[in-house]
From TrEMBL:
Membrane-spanning residues: none
One Pfam family from the record: Toxin_YhaV
This protein's record includes keyword Hydrolase: yes
Top EC class of this enzyme: hydrolase
Phylogenetic placement of the source organism: Bacteria, Pseudomonadati, Pseudomonadota, Gammaproteobacteria, Enterobacterales
Official protein name in the record: Toxin YhaV
Keywords associated with the record: Hydrolase
GO cellular component: toxin-antitoxin complex
GO function terms (MF aspect): hydrolase activity; RNA nuclease activity
EC number in record: 3.1.-.-
Superkingdom per UniProt: Bacteria
Organism, scientific name: Shigella sonnei
Length: 113
């Protein structure tokens, strides 16, 4: 997935923090594919990349204002409320993003790796 791009009517951008993690994951999957083209899809990194794409395309860009993406007070009370969070991978991974309903823009900020 290249950034910026338009998904489900939203302009999707990647902050350098997210882009770095995402690019490393893509590179890892490409290396796995080169070493074992028949079985790389069974590897954890490949599955994680597929889930990241699914989360972005089928969840975040469908309804970024979903209450499921609110993080409560986990980032401190009152501050960082502009950031939303999606959990995936059995709760092991989190992807933080911001969005503007008015501008139809989503910025993918950070993903733990």
């Amino acid at each position: 997935m290249d950034f910026p791009q338009r998904v489900n009517g939203w302009a999707l951008y990647a902050h350098p923090c997210f882009q770095e993690t995402y690019d490393a994951l893509v590179a890892e999957v490409e290396t796995l594919k080169g070493k074992d083209p028949e079985n790389y899809q069974r590897k954890a990194a490949t599955k994680l990349l597929a889930v990241v794409h699914k989360v972005i395309e089928e969840h975040i860009t469908v309804n970024p204002s979903s209450p499921a993406f609110r993080h409560g007070k986990s980032l401190g009370s009152g501050k960082n409320k502009d950031w939303s969070r999606v959990k995936f991978g059995a709760g092991r991974y989190r992807l933080f993003f911001r969005y503007s309903e008015k501008e139809k823009v989503i910025i993918l900020g950070w993903m733990n790796g």
